[in-house]
Amino acid sequence: MTFRLQRRGDPLASIRCDSALTNRVLPVGGGSDIGFYFTEPPIGLEHSPKTGTWHPVAPSFCVECGEACRFVSFERRWPSHFGELVVAEPLLHRTQALLELLSGLGRVGVAFSGGVDSAVVAAAAQRALGARAIAFTAASPSLAAGELEGAVALARHIGIRHQVIHTQEFADPHYVRNSFDRCYFCKSELYRRLLELAPTLGIDVLVNGANADDRGDHRPGMVAAQEFAVRSPLLELQITKREVREIAREWGLPVWDKPASPCLASRIAYGLEVTPERVARVDAAERFLKECLSLRELRVRYEPNDLARLEVPLEALPRLLEPSLREQIVSELRRLGFRAVTVDLQGFRSGSFNDMVPVSELRRLTPGVGESS
């Protein structure tokens, strides 16, 4: 619901609120200009001692157009107990559309990695379908340490039925050779296993957590999803990553701000075989670096000749190069099996190996690339 504060007939702000919050009101505006009431003093308003009323502060950006304009966005300014207020009206409509889409699919199986995207889909499926929804998490050597336990705990938090399955992508030579379409073979193995389980568990449809921002990126796994008739509710409703995080925060999902955590195979340079030993080496190196640098997000890229290329946020580069810490890092990574350690001066970049993928391969392997939007 949208409420507008009026001052001499001109729109001053656009604020969204739950109309059910009526237990204690504070006037907004002044004199005959009062146009809306709040139950508590919101952060986005300032108090005038002279009039005893509340007025909007200077606008930041508009939730409608994304730019500074005469309509004020108070997004992210509300106290936590105003949980319903931080989602813009269009997103509320999309959230409802997500629940309606899932409720019409029958019995649903969710490909659930434990990341924010699949968590929102799983939570929506649980809300829409209850016991008719089940989440599946694939366990394999390419899953980073702690991710499986995190997915199990998150499924319990959501309340959705959950099952861990073991996939065998490392037995597929097409996956191991690590060409540009590696993800296609990984997702094909996952969806094949899920479809084998579907009749036993009474599943009508499989869904995944692909969102609108994934279209146009290098995502060979989306081709596999199409071939196995896997639905992508977030993508179908054009819900972006930013909106996914807003929904997750609204629903109290602890992973709402969790950094993206692609499988460990994505750290191996294309053309270099993906082996359990190499992904385990990367996993151990990243866990060590996150602990000693106190960072949530970084990458150890596995280059040919057992070379480790470190990607950290730019602000962390000076600390990474401190002599004592640098020596500690080199010593530990050499102990893990890397022969040399380098630092990428461009800093952390998600999916940096995809910069090497030729445009022709992007168009062939990723739905939406090269298409007009």
Automatic annotation (TrEMBL):
Residues 104-172 form the Asparagine synthetase domain. The keyword Heme does not apply. InterPro entries: Asn_synthase, LarE, Ni-pincer_cofactor_biosynth, Rossmann-like_a/b/a_fold. PANTHER family: EXSB FAMILY PROTEIN, NAD_GMP SYNTHASE DOMAIN-CONTAINING PROTEIN. The keyword Cytoplasm does not apply. CDD domains: LarE-like (cd01990). Keywords: Transferase. This is ATP-dependent sacrificial sulfur transferase LarE. It comes from the Bacteria. One of its GO terms (biological process) is asparagine biosynthetic process. Gene3D superfamilies: HUPs. Coiled coil: none annotated. One of its GO terms (molecular function) is asparagine synthase (glutamine-hydrolyzing) activity.
